[in-house]
Amino acid sequence: MNHIISPSLLSADFNNLGRDVEMINNSDADWFHIDVMDGVFVPNISFGFPVISAINKLAKKPLDVHLMIVDPDRYIEEFKNVGADYLTVHYEACKHLHRTIQNIHSHGMKAGVSLNPHTSVELLYDIIDDVDLVLLMSVNPGFGGQKYIENTYSKIARLREIADEKETKLIIEIDGGVDNTNAEKLIEMGADALVAGSFVFKSENPENTIANLKSLKF
Ligand code: DX5
Ligand code: ZN
Asked: Could you confirm whether domain 4-214 is CATH 1.10.287.3510?
């Protein structure tokens, strides 16, 4: 499978959000990465339903929604209503993760689970068959523009081993500090999808930056 590029709109220009959505529509990107933060699970607040709904009106590619919120079950239906295609919750924020995953699937969305840098991939052993995607955080969640954590490489490799052992199809997505110094190795270690926020939007030509990330081979 050719790897997926999911630019994070957290680093977009919110005064020109429509322009940035169109840029992604016209680029080689595959998904829109949408970061929802509640100020409780993470020390930051981003944006909510009205903004996602506005993005969805223009977006011509799937919405990859990353929830950094406590007790996400409260809002699953609303995320479906505003256009989420992939809905990813944090392992650390769910008491009954299996139930939450079922709930996401019952609303017709693909279900993902995200792990903070300190959370071991071994903890996914008994849920891996039930999820479509695992999002490995390669920075501590809450902010764009942080430095990539090197330990993520070995987490990817181990997660790929577990998925292969269980013969389950799984999208492994990496989020945080992704740029041209680590992207190739991330793919080589077994990543299927790369999120990139500041690397794309702070670059001179975001569309070219996306094309370069997409064209990487290992
Ligand atoms: C951080 C978010 C990321 C963030 C990545 O909590 O989950 O998606 O936007 O930004 P960069 O690519 O700048 O690290
Ligand atoms: Zn994210």
From this structure: no
- The two tokens of residue 135 are 């999002």
Tell me, using a 6 A CB cutoff, whether residue 33 lines ligand 1.
yes
Whether 37 is in the pocket of ligand 1, judged by its Cβ within 6 Å, is: no
Write down the catalytic residue from 20, 30, 35, 64: 35
Nearest to 28 by CA among 205, 181, 147: 205
Q: Is 177 in the pocket of ligand 1 (CB under 6 A)?
A: yes
pLDDT of the chain, 218 residues: tens digit per residue: 699 999 999 999 999 999 999 999 999 999 999 999 999 999 999 999 999 999 999 999 999 999 999 999 999 999 999 999 999 999 999 999 999 999 999 999 999 999 999 999 999 999 999 999 999 999 999 999 999 999 999 999 999 999 999 999 999 999 999 999 999 999 999 999 999 999 999 999 999 999 999 999 87
Catalytic-residue membership of 175: yes
What are the DSSP E strand ranges found in the chain? 4-7, 32-37, 63-68, 86-90, 110-115, 133-137, 171-175, 193-196
Active site residue 35: yes
